[in-house]
Amino acid sequence: MSAVVDLDAAVGFVVAHGDAVDRARLSRLRTGAAVPADLLDAAEAGQTPDGGWSATLDSPVGSVDATCYRLSELDDLGALGRPAARRALDWLAARQLPDGGWDEDPSLAEVAPEWARPGDPEARFYLTANAGFWLTVAGLDARAAGPLDHRVGGAYAGVVQAAAHAVAGQLAPDGSWPSFLPAGWLSAAVLHRQGMYDESARIQAVLAERVPRLSPADAAWLAATLRRVEVGEEQWLLVSARRRLAETQRSDGGWDSDDGHQFDVHTTLRAIRACRPAVTSAG
User: Fold this and answer.
1) Does 282 score more than 60 pLDDT?
2) Residue 147: pLDDT above 70?
3) What DSSP state is assigned to residue 119?
4) To which H or E segment does residue 135 belong?
C-alpha cells in the first residue's frame, strides 16, 4: 500500500511547536477561518516605507527575496488583499527590470544569500520566477485601482506576462533552467497560469526526475506551488511530490527544513497546504 501523509499528526506538530501566527495560518489552511486583526498586523510588521520587506531587521532596503517570503506567509493568512500586501506587490511590480526580470538591490551584496545575490544570473532567474509567481497568485486580490485586467494576473497582468517571457526565453530545449532547483517549480507555475503549457510541461518533466531525491522541504514547496496555481489534483508531478512527503514525514508529524529545525514548522505548514483537502474559502 502506498504511503499517505498523516495530516492529523502534521497539525499536531504545528500546534505544539508553532507560534500564534503559525497556528493562525494552520487554522485558515484547514477551515478558512478568519485571522484576528492583531495577528495579521504582527505578520505584516517591519515593512519598509517603500513597501518591501528587508532581509535583515535593521535594514531600510527592501529585498525581493524577503518580500516574497513574507507574501507566502500572508497568503496562508488570507491577507494578500490587505493594504500591506498590496504595497508590497506594487513595490515588486515597480522593481521589474526592462528585460522582465528582477535583481536585488546592489547594496544587499554583503548580506544576500547565494540564491539572491545581486548581479548573479542564477539569482536573477530565481528572483524573477519567485516575484512572477507571487504577482501571479496575488494579482486578482490586488486590484486596488483601475479596471480589472481580464488577463491572468489581474492588476499585474502585464508585469507577469513579461516575467513569463523572461523565464521562457532562458529555458533549454529539454526544459532545464539556468538556476537553482526551486526556480523550476516557480517558473512552471508562472508559465502554467500564463497558458504557456508546453514550456511549463517541459520544466515539470525535468522536476519529475528529481522528485525521488527531493528534500522534504523542497517536496512541500513544489507541491504547494503547483497546487496554488491549480494544476489539477491528479496531475502527476503533484501526486508524486505528495508521495515523497508521505515517505519523509517524521514520527512527530513534522518535516525537516533545509534551513535548520527552527524552520520545521514553516516546512510543515507548506506540506499541509500541499496535501490538505480543498477548502474554497482558503484560496
Assistant:
1) no
2) no
3) T
4) helix 121-138
Output the nine-digit C-alpha cell for 194.
Answer: 500564463
The pLDDT, as a whole number, for residue 138 is: 80
Grid cell listed for 232: 489539477
Give the pLDDT band of residue 154 (cuts 50, 70, 90). low
Residue 241 has pLDDT above 60, yes or no: yes
| Closest to 2 (Cα-Cα) out of 251, 278, 242 | 242
* Phi/psi of residue 63, nearest 5 degrees: -115, 130
Q: Is 7 exposed, middle or buried (0-12, 13-18, 19+ CB in 10 A)?
A: middle
Rounded Cα distance, 119 and 114, in Å: 11
Number of H helices, E strands in the chain: 12, 2
Instruction: Write down the residue that cell numbers 514548522 correspond to.
Output: 265
Please say whether the beta carbons of 74 and 67 come within 8 A.
no
Q: Are 23 and 15 in contact (CB under 8 A)?
A: yes
* 209 or 148, higher pLDDT: 209
> Is residue 243 helix, strand or coil?
helix
How far are the Cα atoms of 44, 50, 94, 104 from residue 60, in angstroms, in the given order?
15, 9, 17, 14
For residue 213, the one-letter residue type is: R
Output the furthest CA–CA distance in the chain (Å, rounded).
54
**Rounded mean pLDDT of 162-191?**
97
DSSP SS3 for 63: strand
Question: Quick one: how far is CA 223 from the chain centroid?
Answer: 10
Q: What is the DSSP string of 14-26?
A: HHHH--HHHHHHH
The CA–CA distances, whole Å, from 267 to 44, 53, 216 equal 20, 21, 8
CA 164/CA 162 separation, integer angstroms: 5
- DSSP code at position 35: P
